């Protein structure tokens, strides 16, 4: 148990000693490897398919394919940029199977 605590303390010390504000585990830039969207500055950890490595990617722009939400934190299609809505499947089944794809729309512009 003591070895685990010492290892954790050393890991935290190294993480805090890094002068780069980008970070090692969080605040990752586009193109860097990620395990969850919370690690990315863009809040989108994207993978091409089930066998590819996930990387931070920009959020989807207007009229681009998107995912509404995923339980896993890794997307096949990134969620929409701020102010846009993903018009697509928003069921729990779509979220579990990662098939909740849609298109980013600006609802304010669409109603005009």
TrEMBL record:
Report the residue ranges that make up the Colipase N-terminal domain in this protein.
Answer: 21-60
What are the UniProt keywords, alphabetically? Digestion, Disulfide bond, Lipid degradation, Lipid metabolism, Secreted, Signal
Q: Which GO terms describe its molecular function?
A: enzyme activator activity; lipase binding
Tell me which stretches of the chain form a coiled coil: none
Give the SUPFAM superfamilies listed for this entry: Colipase-like
Q: Does the keyword Signal apply?
A: yes
Endpoints of the signal sequence: 1-17
Q: Which GO terms describe its cellular component?
A: extracellular region
Q: Where in the cell is it found?
A: Secreted
Query: Which residues does the UniProt record annotate as the domain Colipase C-terminal?
Result: 63-106
One of the protein's GO biological processes: response to bacterium
How would you summarize the oligomeric state and partners of this protein?
Forms a 1:1 stoichiometric complex with pancreatic lipase.
* Main function: Enterostatin has a biological activity as a satiety signal. Colipase is a cofactor of pancreatic lipase. It allows the lipase to anchor itself to the lipid-water interface. Without colipase the enzyme is washed off by bile salts, which have an inhibitory effect on the lipase.
Would you tell me the protein name for this molecule?
Colipase
Q: Provide the species name.
A: Capra hircus
């Amino acid at each position: 148990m003591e070895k685990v605590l010492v290892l954790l303390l050393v890991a935290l010390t190294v993480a805090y000693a890094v002068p780069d504000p980008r970070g090692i585990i969080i605040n990752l830039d586009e193109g860097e490897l990620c395990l969850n969207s919370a690690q990315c500055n863009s809040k989108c950890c994207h993978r091409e398919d089930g066998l590819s490595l996930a990387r931070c990617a920009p959020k989807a722009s207007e009229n681009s394919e998107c995912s509404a939400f995923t339980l896993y934190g890794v997307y096949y299609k990134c969620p929409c940029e701020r102010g846009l809505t993903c018009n697509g499947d928003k069921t729990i089944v779509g979220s579990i199977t990662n098939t909740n794809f849609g298109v980013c729309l600006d609802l304010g512009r669409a109603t005009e």
